[in-house]
Here is the input.
Amino acid sequence: MKFVEFFDRIYVVNLPHRVDRLRKMEQELAQAGMPFAAGKVEVFAAMKPESPEPFTSIGYKGCFLSHLAVLKQARELQLQNVLILEDDLKLLETFATYQAQVIDQLQQTNWDIVYFGYGCPTPIAAPESLPAFQSCPREVFEMHMYAVNHQIFDRLINFLEAMLERPHGHILCGPIPYDGAINVFHWQNLDIARLITVPALGVQRGAQSDINPLWVERLPVLGSAAAIARDLGIAKTLKKLVS
Here is the structure.
């Protein structure tokens, strides 16, 4: 089975003015056998807020709100699962090589969130047999290709909305960039089955980010979640639990 057959909906999050990215994604997906099609593979118009508050940048806020809106639409449509792609995704050869095997394994696996394209602060050792699913490392960033199962739509949406209402420095964590927020969601919900595929099936294409101008500047997205948690004295406890 292919990705396009397994997932109820595939969303490509794209700012309307980034037509260049959309065209590249159209080519990328067509070559991968996942062409845009209404009700199956769709563009989701990303948000660009007028002000950054309560985030530190408009890009972080827009990304957070856009992904939250995707999840809320998926819940409203009663979709069983969704695959969410950033518009700067570059699919690797591993996608074509392993996609059928990945889906076959996924059908036999208990999962809530799966990262197919991701970044980690430490190298991940490849298992002897590929592809494989592994429990997620303690921190993950660059969520440019990930899936969410319907069974956690409510919990994740409620968590993200609560984050928006909390002040900075709140013991349960206030507004932070989206990929950091998912790390905190996992730390606070240890029963969540959050997995990564090894090897990764996609990477970030070498294009200027609408969140930050340079890829390296995305690294604090991870750090922001961890730093807030550490400042509040909860990261040490949470990380021991997931170690």
About this structure: Confidence is low (pLDDT under 50) at residues 207-239. Helices lie at 3-6, 19-31, 58-76, 93-107, 153-165, 178-188, 219-231, 235-242. Strands lie at 9-14, 41-45, 81-86, 89-91, 113-119, 132-135, 141-149, 194-198, 202-204.
